[in-house]
Amino acid sequence: MGRNRGGGSKGSIWDNPFGGLFDFNHDGKEDFGEQWLAMKIFQECTKEGPADEDFSDPVGHLSSAQQDFEDAEDECDWRISCEDGFDVGIDPEDYETEEEYEEALENARLAQSEPVTIPLSLSFELSYPGKEALDAIKESDYPNKRKYDAAYHLCELKQGIAYIPTDSSLEEEIARCEFILNSDTIAAKYLTVYDGFLYVQAVKENFSLPIDIPDEDEAIILYFDSLLLELAEEDATLAAKVWSWCIQEFGPYNQYMKYKPELYNRMLFNFEDYPPGFVDSMLQEMAASPNFLMGILEKNPEFPAAAKYIAYALGHEQQNLAENMFRSAIAHPDESGEELGDFIERTLSACENWDELETVEAFKFHILPIIAQIENKRLQRLLPPPHSGKSR
Prior knowledge:
Structural class: mainly alpha
Shape: rod-shaped
Mean pLDDT: 81
Oligomer: single chain
Strand content: under 5%
Radius of gyration: 53 Å
Distance between the termini: 147 Å
Largest sheet: none
């Protein structure tokens, strides 16, 4: 029977054929590897060798063999117990040390977890009816963005692929584009396809201004009433001339205006907002330019909000101008009996707001005779009875 080494239990002769002498791992039996090593030792000890080789110390040979076995066992153990790297193509047999293997395994796992970027290039060409014609329109061929937009939009219209707003029509869209492209007027130069006229840019390029204003190429940045109020603070006379010029240049083309009251009632409603002296300058401009007076009142897209200006003229000894303003206002094509009645009452009310009675008297002697000539029964009822001495 073999010896029990290291406290292990005794086994049969098949477990310890060498009596436990070669039980290097102290598990109580000599396994196949330990038996094989024992055989190799006996072979080395019994074979003939060089004359100087000394086998007189078999125990020493045994200790050395045991140490070699333990080193080999330690070297092989990590490959048996290490983490499997089959899923990432890493084999422990390909590495000499456990550290090299673990490093290779970690790098492989990191590489597998990172997203794979595959260069991909797509190339396609969008084709639709009229594309070739649209591609032929180059912005560099036009003096500004407005004309380029008009050319492009006109091409879309003719190809049948253009967007047409609900408040417009194909004919109106074509007419606007052709006006921008073909007319040599100031209005055409500053008309956009979608945003109407760029009044402020037109003023900036045609007047020397005492204020800084932004450039506009294709869309409105500053509205005209804001420009005029700011300009009136610096130079009331220039502001009045700018307004008159815009009415003259853009008024005949109000069909292309995006917001028609912008040059007209939107401005007239600002009576109380203007700085001192501006209304006087405006009335002087009307007196000097009948086209301005007629354009802002009779050609107004809406019935003109001129009551306060007529009352102001009457109260500042400009009765002839007040009469001309009143006649131009009631000649508005959209006038009706109701609209005229309201306008007359607003004018008289504006006259009664003055502290002195001269303005009301001026209304009686300069405006009432004009009203009396209007053939409208409702308006006639607004007139005072004959010889009543009353103004209303």
